[in-house]
Specification:
Elements (H helix, E strand, L loop, with lengths): L29 E6 L21 H4 L7 E8 L18 E8 L17 H10 L1 E9 L5 E4 L5 E3 L6 E3 L20 E6 L5 E5 L17 H5 L33 E4 L9 E3 L11 E5 L2 E7 L3 E3 L1 E6 L3 H6 L8 E8 L4 E6 L16 H6 L1 H8 L4 E2 L1 E6 L6 E5 L19 E7 L8 E9 L12 E2 L5 E6 L5 E5 L18 E5 L5 E7 L5 E7 L6 E6 L34 E7 L8
Parallel strand pairs: 7-11, 23-27
Antiparallel strand pairs: 1-30, 2-3, 3-4, 4-5, 4-6, 8-9, 9-10, 10-11, 12-13, 13-15, 14-18, 15-16, 16-17, 17-22, 19-20, 20-21, 21-22, 24-25, 25-26, 26-27, 28-29, 29-30
Bound molecules: MU-OXO-diiron and calcium ion (3 copies).
The site of one calcium ion has 5 residues, from loops.
């Protein structure tokens, strides 16, 4: 931040053109290296990845998971931990990379796909999702590599978990088998006390039934659970995911899950006070000593939430309690005049009474969506990532696309391109209930839609967000493959990452990705000289190209190995400037 006079422009790179090929492109003067692709063994003596995907479920549990998504870099001395290699490394070149592995591709994860379902294959899928914790460091010469560390671990769909907070003892969470696993881990957050919180998003897609005439309950309907066979087919080999065989298991999913990356034996904790929805990410802020957690429910017509801890977070921790277990969950209402209100989801308040069928606070949290419906929250066009500008405290949310509008905060009737909205909490108090909002940008292709107001390069379907400490806002796109054939998207190419100056609203294209992939998980080192980005689902089916098959796994993409005998692999890309400068400047 310049302290006097004119500020230096935030964006100092030459934009890259729209991408159409099967590689990652970054501006002149930058390099992009690939690390930890799916299947990388967590330890140097672990099982090497097999390019025909014949690794077993046990091997997968000892390897990096599939479909990298949100991630956080924890420098090794974040919490006074040792620095590796006798002090050569500092905060900016060694630490733990903790990343979500969101979902799997049935055609690509095993040699012969998933036409024939076996318990072993389903276990491999279950072991490929969740979270990967892996140490990384920068070598002399600048490249990054993963390293052996006692913290390297996988948390997956069969890892034992516990529940905490007001709904932990709710009878609906008492299913037939002990609580295990996290999955559908889209994005995440990092707490002020140095833990990682992974968010369960599209978990409902895993619940089906052998009986395709299964009568869907009201609650199943509200969260999108359907009868019959699912895309992932877990219900055919694991009774937990068959809604007839265990009607309660579904209530154990849709939570924010806290993991201590510096304790390899830590049991992940599902924090029920933050509500049960399809959580995209969870942005942690502090205000008046409290911890505030912002989270969006990514489905068209769903809502934006925030949790405010009851006590100052340091005081709660000093008492041996989690600041995430006691507090108030609010949901956002956006008014026409540019103001907004956070509406409390508290049992006994407003419509959430016994008379209206609410049992207690646990009931409000288990049925968070219904509670938010009842108080009159504003339906949004698919809320994805929420992030805060560290220079101003302003919050930004990507609304990727959807059909919730038109309403004040979602002005388009059919929003195929998405927008980015921002708000400021009144008096700078994030624990309060009033805010002021406006729309930062209506995304899209201005040659197709006159409403598009981008000052710079065209993009659509914003999803990932990240702010560096200079206040640059990084935006990643996820144009789903169902949208790629739309006329509206014909000029926008492969998914991309852009950099925005929030003061001038200028937006410039920084990176384009390979075929079938979305760009996500933007995360920088504290010195802004390394930027990690995840390439998720390269090679996934696209309407334009077709679908990969077990016989032809490279039908869409062969990134990153481009090995004729291999297959596409989700991976992390490490971006640096050749001159060692600050990324984006
Ligand atoms: Fe998994 Fe909403 O993206
Ligand atoms: Ca995704
Ligand atoms: Ca996302
Ligand atoms: Ca998305």
């Amino acid at each position: 931040v310049a302290r006097h006079g004119r500020r230096k422009p935030l964006l100092g790179f030459t934009a890259v053109p729209v991408g159409a090929d099967d590689d990652v492109h970054v501006p002149e003067g930058y390099v992009a290296d690939v690390i930890i692709p799916w299947g990388t063994p967590l330890f140097s003596d672990g099982p090497a990845w097999k390019k025909n995907a014949s690794d077993s479920s046990l091997e997968q549990a000892m390897q990096v998971g599939y479909n990298h998504d949100g991630q956080h870099f924890f420098p090794f001395d974040t919490r006074g931990r040792r620095k590796s290699r006798g002090g050569r490394h500092d905060d900016n070149d060694a630490g733990l990379l903790v990343l979500n592995n969101e979902y799997t591709d049935p055609a690509l994860l095993t040699t012969d796909g998933l036409d024939t379902v076996t318990p072993e294959k389903v276990r491999k899928h279950q072991h490929a999702v969740g979270v990967t914790v892996i140490a990384i460091e920068q070598e002399r010469g600048g490249r990054w590599t993963h390293t052996d560390s006692p913290f390297n671990r996988r948390v997956h769909a069969n890892t034992p978990v516990v529940f905490s907070g007001p709904a932990a003892k709710d009878p609906r969470l008492q299913a037939k088998t002990p609580a295990r696993g996290t999955m559908a881990n889209c994005s995440m957050g990092n707490t002020p006390w140095g833990t990682y919180v992974t968010c369960e998003e599209n978990w409902a897609d895993y619940f089906g039934s052998a009986d395709k005439n299964h009568k869907v309950t009201d609650e199943e309907k509200r969260y999108g659970i359907e009868p019959g066979q699912t895309h992932y087919k877990w219900e055919e080999a694991d009774d937990r995911f068959d809604t007839d065989k265990d009607p309660n298991e579904q209530y154990r999913w849709g939570w924010c899950v806290e993991i201590d990356p510096f304790d390899p034996d830590h049991t992940p904790v599902k924090r029920t006070a933050l509500g049960r929805v399809k959580h995209e990410n969870c942005h942690f802020a502090t205000s008046r000593g409290r911890v505030v957690a912002y989270t969006g429910d990514d489905q068209s017509g769903e809502y934006i939430y925030k949790f405010v801890s009851k006590r100052p977070w340091r005081a709660a921790r000093a008492m041996g309690r989690s600041p995430l277990d006691e507090g108030i969950l609010y949901v956002a209402k956006f008014h026409e005049d540019g103001t907004g209100t956070w509406l409390p989801l508290v049992f006994g308040q407003g419509p959430l009474t016994k008379k209206n069928g609410w049992k207690d606070q646990a009931d409000v949290l288990v049925r968070t969506r219904r509670a938010a419906d009842a108080v009159g929250a504003t339906p949004m066009d698919r809320p994805e990532w929420i992030k805060e500008n560290p220079l101003t405290g302003q919050l930004f949310v990507t609304l990727t696309n959807g059909t919730a509008g038109p309403n004040p905060a979602n002005p388009r009737k059919k929003n195929v391109y998405g927008h980015i909205l921002r708000w400021t909490e009144r008096h700078g108090d994030k624990t309060g209930t009033e805010f002021d909002w406006d729309i930062f940008v209506l995304a899209g292709d201005p040659t197709k839609d006159p409403q598009v107001d981008i000052n710079g390069d065209a993009f659509g379907s914003p999803d990932g967000l990240y702010f560096d400490t200079d206040g640059r806002m990084w935006i990643a796109t996820d144009v789903s493959n169902s949208k790629q054939l739309l006329k509206e998207y014909e000029n926008l190419g492969n998914n991309q990452m852009l950099c925005a100056d929030p003061r001038t609203r200028e937006i410039r294209r920084f990176l384009t990705g390979p075929k079938g992939a979305e760009i996500t998980g933007i995360m920088g080192t504290p010195d802004r000289r390394t930027l990690f980005v995840n390439i998720q689902h390269p090679g996934e089916e696209t309407k334009a190209i077709g679908a990969p098959t077990p016989a032809n796994p490279q039908a869409v993409s062969s990134w990153p190995d481009h090995d004729p005998a291999g297959r596409p692999r989700p991976a992390t890309v490490v971006i640096r400037r050749k001159d060692g400068g600050i990324i984006g400047s």
